[in-house]
Amino acid sequence: YAQPQQAAPILTDHGEVGELTMVCQDWGGLLGLRVLTEHPDWFARAVVANTGLPDAKGIPDEMAGPMRTMLENTPALPIPEMFAKLSANENGVGFMYWVKYCAEFPDLDIGAVVNLSSGDKMNADEIRAYEAPFPDETYKQGARQFPSLVPIIPDDPAIPANREGWKVLEAFEKPLITIFGESDPVSQGGEKRFRKSVPGAQGQKHQILKGVGHFLQEEVGEEFAALILDFCKANPIRSGR
């Protein structure tokens, strides 16, 4: 999860630093929002879509041990049961079922995961296209491990930096909009903190897309792109911003 520090310098080679618009979704936000908060002067605007900057807010430090025990005891369920647990998020631990499915379930079905995360609307060819980069288990190790890196437990080593990141976001006055899927089982409700806490989010036309799941760029790509363009037009980059 420390990769933002390695990836950030790449941005300086593209476009005009200070006039960048961040559009982040899923891991694009978990990593990208760290980049934004460590280099806020690089960016003029931000679009936050079905993602977040997890910092275990509201979870006491003494819960770290019990939460790790709970994660250890969480079963790796087949996809239908896993998605049901993830969506229900009972007691706020639904994400643990996603972590354990990816890490331990014998058949990590990439195509099915993307399809179900996108409202079960993809055709067979589209599903096969998402499966193509993962012809066998050896290609799936990144997909298996990444969910385990999400800092959901308060003693995670990434938590302090993410908490510092939120301090930056809570002072971020440049335009920021949230675009979330109503049916996203992963980040549903995550937009509320951005809307409430980020100064630049005030007065923006935030969106909850009805019937849309996690991968909104897959489900409603044209609508998503149009909303981004509308946001950029409504918040033009001004010299010296």
Description:
With 241 residues, the protein is an alpha/beta fold. The protein has two domains: 4-56 and 157-234, Alpha/Beta hydrolase fold, catalytic domain (Rossmann fold, 3-Layer(aba) Sandwich); 61-149, no CATH class. Helices cover 46% and strands 9% of the residues. The chain has helices spanning 4-11, 27-38, 64-73, 79-88, 94-104, 110-117, 124-131, 141-149, 159-169, 191-197, 216-219, 221-234, and strands at 20-25, 43-49, 176-181, 207-209. Strands 1-2-3-4 form a four-stranded parallel β-sheet, with helices on both faces. Strand 3 (176-181), helix 10 and strand 4 form a beta-alpha-beta unit. Helix 1 (4-11) crosses helix 2 (27-38), helix 2 (27-38) packs across helix 9 and helix 6 (110-117) packs across helix 7 (124-131). The protein is globular and about 55 Å long. The protein starts with a helix and ends in a 7-residue tail after the last helix. The model has no long low-confidence stretch (mean pLDDT 93).
Secondary structure topology:
Elements: H1 4-11, E1 20-25, H2 27-38, E2 43-49, H3 64-73, H4 79-88, H5 94-104, H6 110-117, H7 124-131, H8 141-149, H9 159-169, E3 176-181, H10 191-197, E4 207-209, H11 216-219, H12 221-234
Parallel strand pairs: 1-2, 2-3, 3-4
Helix pairs in contact: 1-2, 2-9, 4-5, 5-8, 6-7
Briefly summarize what is shown.
The chain is an alpha/beta fold. It has 2 domains: 4-56 and 157-234, Rossmann fold, CATH 3.40.50.1820; 61-149, no CATH class.
Strand content: 5-15%
**What spatial form do the alpha-carbon principal axes imply?**
globular
* CATH C-level of the largest domain: Alpha Beta
CATH architecture of the largest domain: 3-Layer(aba) Sandwich
Biggest beta sheet attributes: 4 strands, parallel
How many domains, as an integer?
A: 2
Main β-sheet, spatial strand arrangement: 1-2-3-4
Helix percent band = 40-55%
The overall strand count is: 4
Span between termini? 30 Å
Structural class: alpha/beta
CATH superfamily of the largest domain: Alpha/Beta hydrolase fold, catalytic domain
Average of pLDDT: 93
Our Rg estimate from Cα atoms comes to 18 Å
CATH topology of the largest domain: Rossmann fold
